[in-house]
Amino acid sequence: MKKTVLFLCFSIIFSITSYGQNRYAYESSDAFPFGRPNPEAPKQIKDYASLIGECNCKSFSRKKDGSWNDPVDMIWEWSYIMNGMAVQDKTLKADGGHSGSIRQFIADSSKWYVHYYSSKKPSTTLSTWTGNKKDDKIVLYRDQKAPNGTEGFYRLSFYDISKSGYKWVGEWVDKTETIVYPTWKIECTRKEN
């Protein structure tokens, strides 16, 4: 009798554990610490595949006088979330300013929607950028006027993406994208595991 009860207990625990693992097979795990893309997600979920994992980065921001601040060390971590249906990134910066984004591809509009949050500027509503992968870059936009009132966008671009790392730039551009003013740059090198 004791053996039967013990066997039933182990069977129930194993079934519950297996159900949870199969049900959320694309979440982070020991085997896949940054999750995996869900095969039922839009194919664009793989747009960020080369960024998934951790990188050591240098973050450069522009001063009001137009010169650049000294670089800030940061870690940029990327993972698949929501059982492989979306992408999340987070940064941990040496200056104490941490941030992140939730990235979802909406098939109806054929665009990525990126919702940004930051520890230095908490907000009741999250800033949203939209865009796509174009050739070897990921480019996202948000409407933003220049300080002089000129209509334009704040454009975010990931480029020089490779197995060893990537670069990122945030820049104000006019509506025709002929005037370009970078305000923030990040250079990342993949961490050795």
Detailed description of the structure:
The chain is mainly β. It has one domain (2-190): Lipocalin (Beta Barrel), CATH 2.40.128. A hairpin with an 8-residue loop joins β5 and β6 (127-134). Helices cover 11% and strands 47% of the residues. The longest helix has 22 residues, at 2-23.
Order of helices and strands: HEEEEEEEEEE
User: Given this structure, which CATH class is correct?
Assistant: Mainly Beta
Structural class: mainly beta
Overall geometric form: globular
Radius of gyration: 21 Å
The N- and C-terminal alpha carbons lie at a distance of 49 Å
Q: In the CATH hierarchy, what is the architecture at level 2? A: Beta Barrel
Going by CATH, the homologous superfamily would be Calycin beta-barrel core domain
For the largest beta-sheet, the strand count, sense and barrel status come to:
10 strands, antiparallel, barrel
- Number of helical runs? 1
Short account of what is shown:
The chain is built from 1 helix and 10 strands. The chain is mainly beta.
Summarize the topology.
Elements: H1 2-23, E1 53-61, E2 72-81, E3 86-93, E4 99-106, E5 111-118, E6 127-134, E7 137-143, E8 152-162, E9 165-174, E10 180-190
